[in-house]
Design brief:
heteropentamer, A alpha/beta, B alpha/beta, C mainly alpha, A: alpha/beta, six-stranded mixed sheet, 14 helices, C: mainly alpha, MetI-like fold, 11 helices, globular, disordered N terminus, binds adenosine-5'-triphosphate, binds magnesium ion
C-alpha cells in the first residue's frame, strides 16, 4: 500500500497545487513516439518543473489499465479502445482522455498471392487483440464485403487474436494468411516477411484520420492536480511539435528511446516506413469515437456503452491556446 | 477392588497346576490398572478381545502370555490409551504409561542417544542432565559405545535395547513392555533381566510385560496372566511365589504347567 | 490418581442382551458408516470456509475503500458470472479447459511416469538428466510459447505442448522424490525374491513410492493447469478454443473486473472440485490400504 | 553351480601385511573419499547431457528446416547472450531475479511451514481449508496480478505477492502430503513420550515428514520461480527492477529469438544451479542420515 | 573343500565340551557356501566381521549363534549378496539365496497372501497355481484365516510367519533365516520347528539360520557356529549328533555347554 496512496498523499499536502511526482506509463512502441521523444529529449522534465517524472514501461494494455485504475500510475499513453473500455466499465470513475497522440498507421497486410477481399474466404487472419481497434476494424471491413466472422473463430474467415510478435513468426512460417496490424508490425511484416498491403485503414476513415494513441490521466489525479496535468500536456504538445520539427532526427531519437525501454531498436527501414504511415497530433479525433464503439458492437465484441464525458480537453485547449494553436473539439463527449 | 477380581474363564477349562494361588504382597495396595469386561474389535472384523477383566496393583510386576496374534499388543495399546476398547471400561493412571513397543519404533532421524534424550526432554529434564542421563541409560543396556549411531546402523537387538533405555527414561508409574527381550541373546537377556528387576525394586513401578518365553515370565513376573486366542480373554492366572524364585525345581514345574496350559489353549483353536 | 477415561460399561442385562447391544455398537462403528459421515464433513467444511471468505470479501467491499469497478463485491461477480453463463461463454470455457486439462494431464502422466522410473532407477541417467529436469521445471510456461508456435502454429498442439513442458518435469520430479524415500529394505527384499530390473520397478519401486508419487501428481496437476491457463492466453478464440485462461485474459483486456473475478472463481472451483473428487479419494484409499491413515488428519 | 562373485582374497603375505593392505582398502572405501568422487560425476554428467542437447540443437539448426532468425543456432544465441552480457543487461536481470527469488522463497517457506503444520495437525482446519489451498495452487499467477496492482501498486511488493500466491499453497501441500505419509507409529511414540501438540509437531511430525517436505519445497521453488517470471512481465523498469522474466518478455515482444533463447538458457542454468547447489546436497544429507541412501540413485 | 575347513579360533580359547566333533552325513557332499577370511567394516568404523571362514555343505542345516550386535545379520547379508565384504572371498550358489529377514520386511501395499504370491510370481509360477500355493503356505504357518489382511493389521508374530511362508515360497537351494521364530510363542514355535524340519528333509535345502535360543539351535541345527563380538569371528563350533536329538539329557548338556561358551565370549567384552 505504498504507490497507490501517493495520489491521496498529494491531495493532503497540496490541495490543488502541483503534484510531487508524476508517474507516466507508456509502451515501447513507435505509436507512442510523443512519449518516447518527450522523455528522450527531456521535454516533459522541463515542462513539469518541480514535479518529478517517473516513467513506467508496460508490455501489455491490461497491466497499464490496472495500474492506472489502482493509482499506481497517474497518466498513460494508450490505445483508444482500452481507454474506452476502462471508462465504460468504471462508469467514468477511472480516467479521462486529455489529448490525442498519434493517428493512422494500421494496415491489413496479406500474402502476396491474395489480391482481393473475396480471396480471403476460408483464410486465417490475425489481429492483435480480441475487441481491439484492429480486430473491430477487420471484422467490420469483412462484414462490409459479405464475409461473416464470429468472436470464437467461426465464419467465412477465421480470426486469431494473437500477440504481434507471434503474428510475425506465424506469418513467416506460412501459418497465417494475413493480419490487420498497427505499426511497426505492419511494416515489419511487409519488409521482413514479404507481406503485401491489402487495405490501409486510413482509407476507411473520414479524411484518413483515426486515433491510434491517446493520452489519459487518472481522474482522481486530474481533480487533485489540474496544474500538473496542464504541465504534462504542455510537455506532450511540445514533444509533438518537436517531432514535427525534427523529422530527420526523429527516427534516431525514437530508436534510442526504444533501445532504452525495450532493449532493441527497430531496423531503420521499418522505422521509416512506420513513421511515414503515422501522424502525431494532440487532437484525439473525438468525433471518431462513437463510430469506433459502434463498430465493436456490430462485430459482437463489445457491448453498448455510454462514453459521454470521456474527454476532458479543456486543459489541452488552454495549453494549445497559449501556444497559439487551434483548439480541438470534444464532439460532445466531454469538456473542451 | 482386588476382591472383585475374578478372571474370566472359558467354561470347562480346568485350572492347571499352580493356578489361582493367591498371595499377599503388593497386590493389596491400590490398583494401578483396572480392566473391566474389555472388548475390542477392528472395524467389522471378529472380536479380538472379549470380556477381558484384570486388576494390576500398584508396584506389581505382571507377565502376559498368549499365543501369537491373540491380542496382547492390542491390550497394551488400550491400556496405554493408544487405542479405544469397543466395549467395557478401564481405569489407568491419568499420566498415562511408559510403553516399550514390540518393534523398537526408534526415530530414524535421531541417534541412539538422541532417541533416549528426546524421551527425557519431553519429560522436562534439562539439557545438561539429559546428556548424562541418556549416556547412563545406554550404558545400562550395554550400548555406551553405540550412542552416536543412527537406528539403521544398529542391529535388531541393539535397537531393542535402545528402546528399552528409552522406556526407562520415562518416569511414568506404569511401564508396559511388549516382548522387550525377544531379539536378545540368552546372556544379554539375563543381564537385562537383572537390571530390570533392580529398576523395578528401586522405583516401585507397576510393570506389565508381554513375553513368549514362559521361563522369563516366571523369572520376572509376580503374577502370570494367560490370554486365550480369538477372542482373547484372560483364561488363567498364576501367582509366582518366592519359592519359585529360589527353587529351580519349583520354577521348572510352574513353567511346565504354564506351557501345558498354553498348549491346551492353542490346541482348542487348531 | 486413576481416572476413568472411558466409562461405557453397558448397564446390566443378560449376556444375550449385551451381545446384541455390542453388535449394534460395533456395526455403528464399522467402516462404511464412518466413511459416509466423514464425507459429509468433507463437503460441508470447505463450503463453510468458502462462505467465511465470501463474507470477509463482502465486508471488505462494504468498507468502500476501493471503487466498485475495481473490487466488485460477491454479488456483482455473481451477476457477471450469471451473464457469462447465459451467453454460454462460461460453460464453453470450462468445458474446453477441463477437456484439455484432463487429456493433457493424462498424457503427461503416461509420458512422465516411465521417464521418472527410468531416471530413478539408473544412476547415470539420473545424474545426467535429473538437474536438467529440475531446470526445465522452473522454466515459465511462457518460455515455451515461441517454440511451440514455430513448431505447431496456432493449433491445440501448441496448447498441449506448453502444458506438457509444465507438467512432465514436475511429475518426473515428484516420482523421483517419492522413490528416494523408499526404505532400502524393500529393494533388498525385491532382489532376494529374484526381481529383474523391470519387475523391481513395477512390483516394488512403483507401489512403494505410490503415496509420494500421488503427492507429486497433485503438484503436477497444478503445474498442468497453470500452464494450460498460460497457454490459453497465447491466442483467444480463432483456431484455438476459448478456455478459462482466455476468459481471464479477456476480462483483463476489457478492464472488466467482474469477468476477471468470475474466471478466477471458476478456476478455483474447478481446482477444488478436482482435489475433492479425484485426489482426496485416491490418497485416502492409498493411505488406508497401508495403514497410514491412523492419526492422519486426512 | 557355486561361483565366485568376489574373488579378492589378498594373495599370501604375513598377517601384518594383510592388515595394512586391508586398512588401505578400507580407507579407500571410506565415506569422504567416495563422496568426493561422486561429486565430480554430479557436475560432469549434467554437463555432458547439456552438451549432447546443444549438439542436437546445432544439428537441427544445420538441417536448415527453419529460418535462422526463427530458430537460431547455439552460436547465434551465444552471440546474443554475449551482447546482453556486455551491456550488463544479463547480469542485472539475473541478479534482480535471483535476489527476489531467494527472498521470496525464504518468506514463502517461513509463512507456509506453520500453516502447513497446522493444517496437517488439526483435522477441522484441514478439511475446511485443504481443498481451498489446492484450489489456490492451480490458480495461474496472472490471476493475482490485478489484485496485486490494486493493493500494492507497481512496487516490488506486487512481485513478491504474486510469488507468494504461487509458492505458499504449493509448499503447504507438499508439507501436508509429507505428513500424511508418516507411519502412524511415530505419532504414537510421541504420545507415549508425553509430547504436547506443539512438541509433537516440532519433534516428531516435522522431522518425520522432512524428506517429503524437502521434495515439496523443490516443487515450491519451481512454483516461486515461475510465478516470479510471470510477475516480472507486469511491467519493465521504472519502479520495478528488470528481471529475467522481463528479459524473456522483451525478447518475445520484439520477436527476437536470440534474446528469448538467451533468457531461457539463463533461467535453465539458474534452475540447474539451484538444484545442484541447494536441493541435491540437502536431500542427500537427509536421506543419508536416515539410511535411505542405500540403493537410491541419488 | 571340506578338508580345508579350519574354523578361525581366537588364540587361547580352549574348545568347550562337545566342540569339534566331526561327523559324516551331508557335510561330505559339495559345499554350498564357502566363506574365506571374510572381513566387513562399515565406512571408517571398526571391523564388524574379521577373518570369518566357514563352509556349509549342500543340504546342511547350520545354526548361527552370537551376542546381540556381533554381526550375524551382516554375515547373512553378505552371503545373500546384499552387502559386499571388505576383504576375503566367498562362494555362493549363482542363483542366490532365499532370505527371511530379521524384521519381517513385508510389503505394506500387499495382503499377506499377496506378499507370498509375489515371491511365487517373481519365481515364474503361473497365476492359478500361485493362489493355491500361497494359500497352502499360509496354512502351513497357521495363517489361513489372515490371508487377506494387510501387514499393518497383523500382529508381530503373524507378520513373522508370513515372512516365513514367503521365504519358503522361494525355491532357492540356500535358505538364510535371521531369527525366524523370535516373535512366536513356545507352542507355535514348536509346531513351526517341525514344519521347517519336514520342509528341509523333503527339499534337501541348505539352511543357515540365526537364533538367540540355544535350545532351538540344538533342536534344529546339524551344526552350531558361535560368532564372537567386535569383531565377529567364528570362535567355536559344535556338531549336533543324533544322540542329542533323541536324548534330552545329552541335548541339555550341549545346550548348557554352548551357553557357557557364549557367556564366556560376552564376558570377554564386558
Ligand atoms: N489394525 C488392525 N486391523 C485389523 N486387525 C488387527 C489390527 N491390529 C491387530 N489386529 C488383529 O488383532 C489380533 C491381535 O493382534 P495383536 O497384535 O494384539 O497380537 P499379539 O497378541 O500381540 O500377537 P504377537 O505375539 O504375534 O505380537 C490379530 O489377529 C490381528 O490380526
Ligand atoms: N549400516 C551400518 N552402518 C554402520 N554400522 C552397522 C551397519 N549395520 C550394522 N552395523 C553394525 O554392525 C554390527 C553388527 O550388526 P548386525 O546387525 O550384523 O548384528 P547381529 O549379530 O545381527 O545382532 P542382533 O542379534 O542384535 O540382530 C553392529 O554393531 C552394528 O552397529
Ligand atoms: Mg504383539
Ligand atoms: Mg541381526
Amino acid at each position: 500500500a505504498t504507490a497507490n496512496n501517493n495520489s491521496a498523499k498529494n491531495d493532503a499536502v497540496t490541495q490543488t497545487g502541483a503534484a510531487a511526482t508524476l508517474r507516466l506509463g507508456y509502451f515501447p512502441n513507435v505509436t507512442h513516439a510523443p512519449a518516447i521523444a518527450g522523455l528522450q529529449e527531456g521535454i516533459f522534465a522541463r515542462d513539469l518543473g518541480t514535479t518529478k517524472l517517473t516513467a513506467q514501461v508496460f508490455n501489455a494494455g491490461p497491466s497499464a489499465i490496472e495500474a492506472l485504475n489502482a493509482g499506481a500510475i497517474d497518466a498513460a499513453y494508450l490505445g483508444p479502445n482500452p481507454a474506452i473500455n476502462a471508462y465504460a466499465k468504471s462508469s467514468g470513475a477511472s480516467l479521462r482522455i486529455i489529448a490525442g497522440a498519434a493517428s493512422g498507421g494500421a494496415q491489413l497486410v496479406v500474402k502476396p498471392s491474395i489480391t482481393s477481399a473475396a480471396q480471403l474466404k476460408g483464410k486465417v487472419l490475425a489481429t492483435p487483440q480480441l475487441g481491439g481497434t484492429q480486430d473491430v476494424a477487420l471484422r467490420s471491413w469483412l462484414a462490409g464485403r459479405g464475409l461473416k466472422t464470429t468472436p470464437v473463430g467461426g465464419g467465412d474467415v477465421t480470426i486469431n487474436p494473437t500477440g504481434n510478435a507471434q503474428t510475425l513468426k506465424l506469418f513467416q512460417d506460412g501459418k497465417l494468411d494475413g493480419a490487420w496490424l498497427p505499426e511497426p508490425w505492419a511494416s515489419r511484416l511487409v519488409l521482413q516477411a514479404g507481406a503485401k498491403v491489402l487495405v490501409n485503414e486510413a482509407d476507411l476513415w473520414h479524411e484518413g484520420q483515426f486515433s491510434t494513441t491517446v493520452l489519459v490521466v487518472n481522474k482522481a489525479f486530474l481533480d487533485a492536480h489540474p496544474q500538473t496535468v496542464e504541465a504534462l500536456l504542455k510537455g506532450h504538445v511540445d514533444s509533438i511539435r518537436w517531432l514535427d520539427a525534427h523529422q530527420r532526427e526523429a527516427a534516431a531519437v525514437i530508436n534510442a528511446g526504444l533501445k532504452d525501454a525495450a532493449g532493441q531498436p527497430l531496423a531503420p527501414d521499418v522505422m521509416d516506413r512506420a513513421l511515414a504511415g503515422l501522424a502525431f497530433s494532440p487532437d484525439p479525433l473525438a468525433a471518431t469515437f462513437p463510430e469506433l464503439l459502434a463498430h465493436g458492437v456490430a462485430a459482437g465484441v463489445a457491448g453498448p456503452a455510454d462514453i459521454k464525458g470521456i474527454f476532458d480537453l479543456a486543459p489541452l485547449n488552454k495549453v494549445l491556446k497559449a501556444a497559439g494553436q487551434k483548439p480541438v473539439p470534444a464532439a460532445g463527449l466531454g469538456t473542451q | 477392588m482386588t476382591q472383585t477380581l475374578t478372571p474370566a474363564r472359558e467354561p470347562g477349562s480346568a485350572p492347571g497346576a499352580g493356578e489361582r494361588r493367591k498371595e499377599g504382597g503388593p497386590r493389596d495396595s491400590a490398583p494401578a490398572v483396572v480392566l473391566e469386561n474389555l472388548g475390542k474389535r477392528f472395524g467389522a472384523g471378529p472380536a479380538v478381545l472379549e470380556n477381558v477383566s484384570a486388576t494390576v496393583a500398584q508396584g506389581e510386576f505382571v507377565a502376559l502370555l498368549g499365543a501369537s496374534g491373540c491380542g496382547k499388543s492390542t491390550l497394551l495399546n488400550i491400556i496405554a490409551g493408544l487405542d479405544v476398547p469397543t466395549s467395557g471400561a478401564l481405569e489407568v493412571p491419568s499420566d498415562g504409561a511408559a510403553f516399550m513397543f514390540q518393534d523398537s519404533s526408534l526415530f530414524p532421524w535421531l541417534s541412539a542417544a538422541g532417541n533416549v534424550e528426546l524421551a527425557l526432554k519431553l519429560r522436562g529434564v534439562g539439557r545438561a542432565e539429559r546428556t548424562v542421563r541418556a549416556r547412563e541409560l545406554l550404558e545400562l543396556v550395554n550400548l555406551g559405545h553405540a550412542a552416536d549411531k543412527r537406528p539403521h546402523e544398529l542391529s535388531g537387538g541393539m535397537r531393542q535395547r535402545v528402546a528399552l533405555a528409552r522406556s526407562l527414561a520415562q518416569d511414568r508409574a506404569v511401564l508396559l513392555m511388549d516382548e522387550p527381550f525377544a531379539a536378545l541373546d540368552a546372556i544379554t537377556r539375563e543381564l537385562l533381566h537383572n537390571e530390570l528387576e533392580r529398576v523395578w525394586r528401586e522405583t516401585g513401578r507397576t510393570i506389565i510385560f508381554v513375553t513368549h518365553n514362559v521361563r522369563e515370565a516366571v523369572r520376572l513376573g509376580q503374577r502370570v496372566l494367560l490370554l486365550s486366542s480369538r477372542p482373547g480373554t484372560v483364561v488363567a492366572e498364576w501367582d509366582v511365589s518366592d519359592e519359585h524364585r529360589t527353587n529351580a525345581g519349583a520354577a521348572g514345574e510352574l513353567t511346565a504347567g504354564i506351557t501345558a496350559r498354553l498348549r491346551e489353549e492353542i490346541r482348542r483353536h487348531a | 490418581m486413576p481416572e476413568t477415561p472411558t466409562a461405557t460399561l453397558p448397564a446390566g442385562g443378560s449376556a444375550e442382551d449385551l451381545r446384541t447391544l455390542e453388535a449394534g455398537l460395533d456395526s455403528l462403528q464399522s467402516e462404511p458408516a464412518r466413511r459416509r459421515r466423514l464425507d459429509l464433513s468433507r463437503i460441508l467444511l470447505p463450503l463453510a470456509a468458502l462462505l467465511v471468505l465470501v463474507l470477509a470479501w463482502q465486508f471488505y467491499v462494504t468498507l468502500g475503500l476501493r471503487r466498485r469497478d475495481q473490487v466488485p463485491g460477491p454479488l456483482d461477480v455473481l451477476g457477471s458470472l450469471g451473464l457469462l453463463w447465459q451467453e454460454g461463454t462460461a460453460q464453453e470455457a470450462i468445458w474446453t479447459s477441463l477437456q484439455r486439462g484432463v487429456v493433457g494431464f493424462a498424457i503427461s502422466i503416461a509420458v512422465a511416469t516411465p521417464i521418472g522410473l527410468l531416471l530413478s532407477q539408473v544412476r547415470v541417467l539420473r545424474r545426467a538428466f535429473g538437474p536438467l529436469v529440475s531446470g526445465l521445471q522452473v522454466l515459465p510456461s511462457v518460455a515455451w510459447v515461441p517454440a511451440a508456435i514455430i513448431w505447431f502454429g496456432l493449433s491445440d498442439a501448441t496448447v498441449y505442448f506448453v502444458m506438457f513442458m509444465g507438467a512432465i518435469p514436475s511429475i518426473i520430479n515428484g516420482l523421483i522424490s517419492g522413490v528416494d524415500q523408499i526404505p532400502p529394505q524393500y529393494r533388498r527384499v525385491g532382489r532376494i525374491l529374484g526381481a529383474s530390473r523391470w519387475e523391481m520397478a513395477l512390483h516394488v519401486v512403483l507401489p512403494a513410492a505410490l503415496p509420494g508419487y500421488v503427492g507429486g501428481l497433485k503438484q503436477g496437476w497444478a503445474f498442468s493447469w497453470r500452464s494450460l491457463m498460460a497457454a490459453e492466453i497465447i491466442a483467444m478464440g480463432g483456431t484455438l478454443g476459448f478456455g478459462l485462461g482466455s476468459l481471464l485474459e479477456q476480462g483483463r483486456q476489457l478492464a472488466d473486473m467482474g469477468v476477471v473475478m468470475s474466471a478466477i472463481l471458476v478456476i478455483l472451483f474447478v481446482g477444488i472440485a478436482v482435489e475433492l473428487l479425484v485426489f482426496a479419494p485416491v490418497e485416502k484409499r492409498l493411505l488406508r490400504g497401508r495403514g497410514l491413515l491412523a492419526g492422519s488428519t486426512r
